[in-house]
Specification:
By secondary structure, this protein is α+β, with helices and mostly antiparallel strands. The protein folds into two domains: 44 residues; 177 residues, Immunoglobulin-like (Sandwich), CATH 2.60.40. Strands 8-7-11-5-4-13-15-14 form an eight-stranded mixed beta sheet, with helices on one face. The protein has a five-stranded antiparallel beta sheet with strand order 3-2-6-10-9, with no helix packed on it. A hairpin with a 4-residue loop joins strand 14 and strand 15. The longest helix is centred in the N-terminal third of the chain and has 43 residues.
Length: 263
């Protein structure tokens, strides 16, 4: 009797170990396939996106004097011009984001893709006492993506844009002490998640408003992100708003796409 019990225990133990090995092998292979398929999907559709605010700078010239002592002890003074960039403060942000979820299947796995429409108005203030030639830079949220209907305007006037390593660059002359409005809009697409970052580890944000409309009900605010200050359910999704007068934070605004149950 004892031998039969021990045999049953041995058989149960060996079977359990075999199932554990099989499960681990299937999980490892599925994870490897998922990684490769995810890269393929991102290469066709677009990668996760993280939008940051634009910057505005102007260049100043200052004289720098240096002294050199010659072998005979004579001191010679030299003067040269040194260029330096001055950043303008971002006084306000008013942005609208629309996220439309699209599930796509690759192989046997499902992936959460999305289309995004972005439009933002950013106000800068020229702190200089002179009229300055300002350079505005807007970093695209992802290198691996497409941007349709991209428009960049300064004080409601469309401007010519150049692309410098994934950054849209434009320039305009701004009078002394004046405010200048930079507006950027585009349509794009990505996968898994969309984020808005304030640009650094801990940043001060003034007069900020971001409105996000989704066409899906299942929403989540990931760890280390800011929850919406206002939420309103719609027929097919949510209207979310983040509003801050004077915020100091290192957190981002983020929206992960709902995941479909895998077969």
């Amino acid at each position: 009797m004892i031998r039969r019990i021990l045999a049953l225990i041995l058989i149960f133990g060996c079977t359990s170990i075999a199932w554990l090995i099989l499960g681990a092998t299937i999980f490892s292979r599925t994870d490897d396939v998922d990684r490769r398929l995810h890269e393929q999907v991102a290469s066709v559709w677009g990668s996760p996106q993280e939008q940051t605010p634009p910057t505005a700078t102007y260049t100043t010239q200052t004289e720098k004097k240096t002294q050199t002592t010659l072998p005979d002890g004579k001191i010679v003074e030299n003067t040269r011009n040194v260029s330096s960039d001055v950043s303008l403060p971002l006084n306000s942000t008013d942005a609208d984001v629309r996220l439309n979820l699209e599930y796509r299947q690759k192989g046997l796995l499902w992936y959460s893709l999305y289309k995004v429409g972005f439009a933002g108005t950013f106000t800068f203030h020229n702190t200089s006492s002179n009229t300055e030639a300002m350079t505005f830079r807007f970093k695209f949220p992802a290198q691996q993506a497409i941007y349709d209907d991209f428009v960049m305007s300064i004080n409601d006037i469309p401007v010519t844009v150049t692309n410098e390593g994934g950054i849209a660059v434009a320039s305009a002359s701004v009078p002394a002490g004046a405010d200048v409005r930079l507006r950027v809009s585009y349509r794009s697409q990505g996968v898994d998640s969309w984020y808005y970052s304030f640009g650094g580890s801990v940043e001060q944000v003034r007069k900020f408003r971001l409105h996000m409309a989704t066409d899906f009900k299942q929403i989540d605010f990931p760890e280390n992100t800011l929850p919406a200050t206002q939420k309103q359910a719609t027929n097919n999704g949510w209207d979310l708003t983040w509003t801050y007068d004077n915020l100091v934070s290192g957190f981002r605004i983020g929206m992960p796409m709902p995941q479909k149950l895998q077969p």
